[in-house]
TrEMBL record:
Domain ATP-grasp: 145-354
Classification lineage: Bacteria, Bacillati, Actinomycetota, Actinomycetes, Streptosporangiales
Gene: ddl
Cofactor: Mg(2+); Mn(2+)
Localization annotation: Cytoplasm
GO cellular component, one term: cytosol
Protein name, entry field: D-alanine--D-alanine ligase
Species annotation: [Actinomadura] parvosata subsp. kistnae
Amino acid sequence: MSKPRVAVVFGGRNSEHAVSLMGAGSVLDAIDRSKYEVIPIGIAQDGRWVLAASDQRFAIEDGELPSVDTTGAALALPSGSGSLVAYDPGAIPVELGSVDVVFPVMHGPYAEDGTIQGLLEMAGVRYVGSGVLASAVGMDKAYMKTVIAAAGLPTGPYVVIRDRDWRLNREQVLKEAEELGYPVFVKPARAGSSQGISKASDRAELESAVEFARQHDPKVLVEAAIVGREIECAVLQSLGDEPAAASLPGEVRVEGGQEFFDFEAKYYPDQMSLTVPADIPQETAEELRAMAVRAFEALECEGLARVDFFYTADGKLIFNEINTMPGFTSLSVAPQLWAASGLSYPALVERLIQLALSRSPGLR
């Protein structure tokens, strides 16, 4: 019998392109080649799909971020076929055969936001992770907070600044944001990996921060600063009908001198530390794990997610955000949380592939 074919897809048309490659490199190293045939596929910044080159670089080297090498054969995934087709200008297309499951190690817009999930649904291909709706809601922080609040989880105060309001009613939206009280954090509504985020302590910084965030997304979120420790929890769907499981919670600390958990703190060496389990009361840890599962279920997530909270000095837990495809290198927070909970990185990758293989494409 032939082995199941797993296509690991990485890259993408957004600012988290390099982050995707770093995670994909770890996944490719971890997949059991005795059980699966693996096809590495890169999506270039211009949207081209290519078979990964044999010397494709996945790690940061000498401070340089990796990107998709476009010298490989161009690929297409025709709707409804589930089969990859390789083509080059002037050449006859070559069918490479069907794919049993796609592992989209991708983040941000045109990837984690439901777009690649919708494409795979149209193609009739199984894939790792959440479906279209959960991915889209999880990516849009404004709608995410609306759904989370409806599920009864506490969230911090925030203001949404949409493109039209910024262009036509700038003074009004700035006043609304200032009512949150300084300092505030300003972030793109639909970006991740701390891209485009800045802290503002006065009107001038607020206006500059909004313009900076708008370089990534015309829709911007302004959040009141919450003083508290950042505690994160990973959630994993059950292989059967059991409820989703939550990892041990872990506390993230910035070690590189940054004012908050920015891109460098997340992805450059020795910039952050993770303590698992977090040094919080046992009853608080159990409450946090239950809240993480509730957030996972509220968005109807599948596969995996990472849920982030603030733990305040008076013992309150406040939801921050959920990531439906969190950073996925072997040293990223979610895999480390599972490793500390007894599930190694290779075992986590195997579980996610099996979860994807066990479900059918389409409405569920």
